[in-house]
Amino acid sequence: MNSTSKTGRLRVGLVQLRTGRNVAANIELASALIREAARDGARYVQTPETTNLMEMDRAVLFATLQEEAADPALAAFRALARELGIHLHIGSLAVKVSENRAANRGFLIGPDGDIAARYDKIHMFDVDLPNGESYRESTAYRPGERAVLGAVGDVTLGMSICYDLRFPALYRALAESGAQVLTVPSAFTRPTGEAHWHILLRSRAIETGTYVLAAAQGGRHENGRETYGHSLVVDPWGRVIAEGGTDPAVILAELDMAEVEAARARIPSLRHGRRFEMAEGTSSHLHVVGASS
């Protein structure tokens, strides 16, 4: 099934969630909103990071998680994509990969229900925020090692997750490898979201001349965490063309793939990258920086 029309347009839906600690309830809410997006004509639907579970207690997390093959959320969403005949991008699920490690893994599911692409979050969010919140993703999650492209009909997607957003080299590499749309399903904290969310997403779009789609978690969750929401669709010129609030909702937009080529023709920076080295005397850990030629 080709999800783009002859005019190169793709109708997309972002599902904003407030995922809690009950996996079955999370599946039910996400599924209802995915159905709503499909009813409204979306042929590609994206959910946020950690769609299946938001749990900060490590013991409870590992008592709840399943391996990919047995994960009930993945099975439900594969069946739903098949039923609706859509490309369903589950921004990420927490899935067990060993007794003491999980993967924060995104899944692009095709209209046939098959998994078309998997992406494990590369960058781990290990920080202490000024408001007292502390996050140590690396204590529970195994980082990914590979950048991943997926396809929705004739449209090429570059996959990423949340904290990856702060590492622009990843998005340049995805765009140079053919991505026309960059995806950033997220669960940004409220303080970091208020400060940086819009700026970073718009910057990634401008730098690469791509659409950026970012479904987000929003509001205060059962585990006490507060996420920023504001799911965004940004066009290749850096303009926000659709935005959510903080409550669970569907955000719809129409992508015109001709806009990607138009933006890249106006600012052809993807063709202008050059390799360079740091000058002698610079700290050794900065001695070589690469850019594409």
Q: What do you see in this structure?
A:
A six-stranded mixed beta sheet has the order 5-4-3-2-1-16. It has helices at residues 23-39, 58-64, 72-84, 168-176, 190-208, 258-266; strands at 9-16, 44-46, 87-98, 101-109, 115-120, 126-128, 134-136, 148-152, 155-159, 181-183, 211-214, 218-220, 226-228, 232-234, 240-243, 249-256, 276-277, 288-289. It is globular and about 50 Å long. Helices cover 25% and strands 29% of the residues. It has six helices and 18 strands. A hairpin with a 5-residue loop joins strand 12 and strand 13 (226-228). The model is unreliable at 286-293 (pLDDT under 50). It has one domain (9-289): Carbon-nitrogen hydrolase (Nitrilase/N-carbamoyl-D-aminoacid amidohydrolase, 4-Layer Sandwich), CATH 3.60.110.10. The protein is of the alpha+beta class.
Annotation keywords:
globular; 25% helix; Nitrilase/N-carbamoyl-D-aminoacid amidohydrolase; alpha+beta; disordered C terminus; 293 residues; six-stranded mixed sheet
* Main sheet: strands, sense, barrel: 6 strands, mixed
Beta content: 25-35%
The share of residues in helices is: 25-40%
Q: Which segments are poorly predicted (pLDDT under 50) over 5 or more consecutive residues?
A: 286-293
Distance between the termini: 36 Å
Q: What is the radius of gyration?
A: 19 Å
What would the principal axes of the Cα set say about the shape?
globular
